[in-house]
Description:
The complex is a heterodimer of chains A (about 475) and B (about 90).
Chain A (H helix, E strand, L loop, with lengths): L2 H13 L5 H15 L4 H22 L12 H24 L6 H5 L1 H18 L6 H28 L9 H7 L14 H6 L5 H32 L7 H5 L9 H6 L6 H32 L17 H8 L1 H18 L4 H23 L2 H6 L2 H32 L10 H18 L11 H11 L4
Chain B lengths: L1 H20 L26 H12 L3 H4 L9 H12 L1
Helix pairs in contact in B: 1-4
Amino acid sequence: MTTVALVRTRLRQTVSFHENIALVAWWAAxxxxxxxxxxxxxxxxxxxxxxxxxxxxxxxxxxxxxGPDLTLAPGLRALLLVPYVxxxxxxxxxxxxxxxxxxxxxxxxxxxxxxxxxxxxxxxLWLTPGSDGLWRALFAQFALILPFLLWRCGYLLKSGxxxxxxxxxxxxxxxxxxxxxxxxxxxxxxxxDYLTRSEAQSTEALARSQLAGLKLxxxxxxxxxxxxxxxxxxxxxxxxxxAGMLHGHSLGMPWLQDLIRGTATASLLTAWVSVYCDLIWxxxxxxxxxxxxxxxxxxxxxxxxxxxxxxxxxESIVEFWNRYYYYFxxxxxxxxxxxxxxxxxxxxxxxxxxxxxxxxFVGNLYYHVIQQxxxxxxxxxxELWNLLHARIFYCFLLATGIYVSMLREQGxxxxxxxxxxxxxxxxxxxGGVWTFYGLIHIWGVGSGQATFGQRTRFLLSLxxxx
Amino acid sequence: MTxxxxxxxxxxxxxHFLRTIQKPEHPLDGLDERVSLIESGLIDxxxxxxxxxxxxxxxxxxxxxxxIDPGELSSIGGILDLIESERG
Lengths: 466, 88
């Protein structure tokens, strides 16, 4: 074996330390004593207890900033809002457990009913602007929390619909409904079905899961370091700790959103490099966050998929979408793509088109609308439009790209390995994916900070037009 | 006995179909019935829709009311169980 091959093998072994049989056995041996007590069920109960504590403290402390007439004092939040949230979660849980006994209208469209509940609260708030009162503040506070819960409760209802929530307790669900690892509106690790399918059932599986989690947490710190380096050496941010070490040396790359807004100027080449740098920056940012959440989940014994898995090596648009933000994509697929695909049995190309637009366009846009809960609660539609109008075009381009890419992928499936050309063709495909996502991100970056016209003009300037 | 023969025939047909949609770098032969097709890298989660179309066309399974459960369709065994339960 040559020195290079030896170094490569050692490096691969070091990076994949979580798969090292001896290390897994050593870790499992140390877990053995506790392993007898920490059964999957008890782990879930312990996590749910922590979730409950976290729910009470975060709901009580969190200041909403939705205006003084819509704000509850901390004492009232603990007294009224916490039981309200717990009551809602319990109701969803009971709905899932007794799904078959629910009224037909809910059984047929559980997700729509869930979201209608949220929108009915908002409409009530919009229609009663002059009326003060505790109930209104309580409604507003709850509506501010709901976007975080809607998709998670959606997964719970899906479990009920599939008959998998029967014979479960609330403690089996609370840990992902209000997770201690927090997360965003996107449920990392999805819901009960996927989490329990990925749950470690033996000490050895727990050891594997925890080592894989440890690896992700370490990787998150590595990417954090790379981001720091990028901030200092590429973007020349004077506020980074590295700035002093670099003695003011940097590439001085302008941020993409500054170029779009016109607050920075650059040559054509630099503008293109800025587009690609922004893609790398966003991928790293998402990877750090996702690796931390999934790392914690794996430490808790849920050996679930990574949220971000080498998206920059993707060779097609659809592959990038799958690897870039896995749990968001899964959310869109499960809540929009599959239902539309199952319902409309038209021609295959039209069926796929409808399903993709339902997920990547409608679902994607809807997700971002309800994410603006503070604007929704006070009914500030002009600001909502200002923030999201460019995203409409972004989602349209994304959906179109995914559709075309998916058709191409379907055509290629079943081909033998090696039929897709050598390294050069692979690099060209990767470059094409980078360019597509880099360019559509022009309409996704810095929500509300640039107009649609500014974004379009920037795109044209990249091709020396306009 | 008939049940086993039928399952074996369904498995054979399914494997034949999966070969037409699988990713080329991952071998399908010898794959355990319960191993996840997605996690083993054979297909991506969006390819599940091709499996849905196959089940609709070949076995007349209607997903409109029951919805698509990716967990159910994630392994060869899961798909065969679904075929049996829908046809049973």
